[in-house]
Amino acid sequence: MVSVKALTNIEHDGEIYTKGQSIELKTDQADALIEAGVATKGRHAQEAEVIEEKPKTKAELLAEAESEGLVLEGINGDSKRDQIVEAIAAARAVKQD
After folding, report:
1. Which residues contact residue 3 at a Cβ distance below 8 angstroms, ignoring those fewer than 6 apart?
2. Given 3, 7, 20, 42, which residue has the most CB atoms within 10 angstroms?
3. Burial of residue 29 (number of CB atoms within 10 Å: 0-12, 13-18, 19+)
4. What distance in Å separates the CA atoms of residue 2 and residue 47, rounded to the nearest whole number?
5. What is the predicted pLDDT for the residue at 23?
6. pLDDT digit string (tens) for the chain, length 97 residues
7. Element (H, E) at 2
8. Torsion of CA 23, 28, 31, 37, to 10 degrees
């Protein structure tokens, strides 16, 4: 099922949906309405599709710290990602002072 938002009044399966109303439809039905220009993906569908940014890898974090000239206290090759994130935050705080 896909949530779409009516861009105009739509009659579907004997029911009338008003402009702006969200409708739950089968994917092929939703695609047909979107293609016809009478519906767009609904708010709920858009929220579900929000893709969270991937967390940076340890290597990316270390490269970022190096590019900023940060000195990371107590960080070595065995350090966990969370430790690196904390060390970067601490180094940035020191750098601002």
Report:
1. 22, 23, 24, 30, 41, 42, 43, 44, 45
2. 42
3. middle
4. 12
5. 87
6. 888 888 889 887 888 888 888 888 899 998 898 888 888 885 544 544 444 568 899 999 999 999 999 999 999 989 999 999 999 999 999 887 7
7. strand 2-6
8. -80
pLDDT of the residue at 87: 95
- End-to-end CA distance of the chain, in Å? 53
Phi, psi of 24 (to 5 degrees): -95, 120
The alpha carbon of residue 86 and the mean position of all alpha carbons in its chain are separated, in whole angstroms, by 24
At 24, the amino acid letter reads: E
Alpha helices in the chain (DSSP H): 27-36, 43-49, 58-67, 81-96
SS3 labels along 3-27: EEEECCCEEECCEEECCCCEEEECH
Encoding tokens for residue 75? 């960080």
- pTM: predicted TM-score of the whole model, two decimal places: 0.47
